[in-house]
Design a protein that fits this description.
single chain; mainly alpha; 65% helix; flat
């Protein structure tokens, strides 16, 4: 979200605050480990972004448009709700084919973790994360291009 315009209605700080409220609320949670926290945080942020995109994709806000970015990485920072929803659907299809690659995508896109941070979080080598990331990017690009 750091590359979004300043007047964008969903700010990174707001997203983090909303995710925190959803994760913790009035409860004191204990995380099993760092990976558990990052997975929960990524899922909370994904859900917030999907809800936001669905609300913004309504006919009142021009919800029929669809445009593909040149690079799948650009999709993570796009504000177009249709693209966010299309990405989430493509990630769900990826999860059916390769759950590990889908987990890497969610941690990279929604939690903003680097390759090394993802590797440490899920307990695999950075090389394995890079392999999953390459496969996932190709899969997602193909899925979104066909859609």
């Amino acid at each position: 979200m750091e590359s979004e315009r300043a007047d964008h209605t969903l700010q990174a700080t707001g997203l983090v605050h909303e995710a925190y409220v959803r994760l913790v609320g009035n409860n004191e949670l204990e995380w099993a480990n760092r990976a558990h926290f990052f997975h929960a945080a990524a899922e909370a942020m994904r859900r917030i972004l999907i809800e936001y995109a669905r609300a913004r994709a309504g006919p009142k806000r021009g919800g029929g448009r669809r445009q593909l970015p040149l690079d799948i990485v650009d999709l993570a920072t796009e504000a177009d709700p249709a693209q966010i929803l299309a990405l989430d659907e493509a990630i769900s299809r990826l999860e059916e084919k390769d759950p590990d690659a889908a987990r890497v995508v969610r941690l990279r896109f929604y939690a903003g973790l680097s390759v090394e941070e993802v590797a440490k979080s899920i307990g695999v080598s950075p090389r394995m994360v890079k392999r999953d990331w390459s496969f996932a990017r190709a899969f997602l690009f193909r899925e979104l291009d066909e859609g």
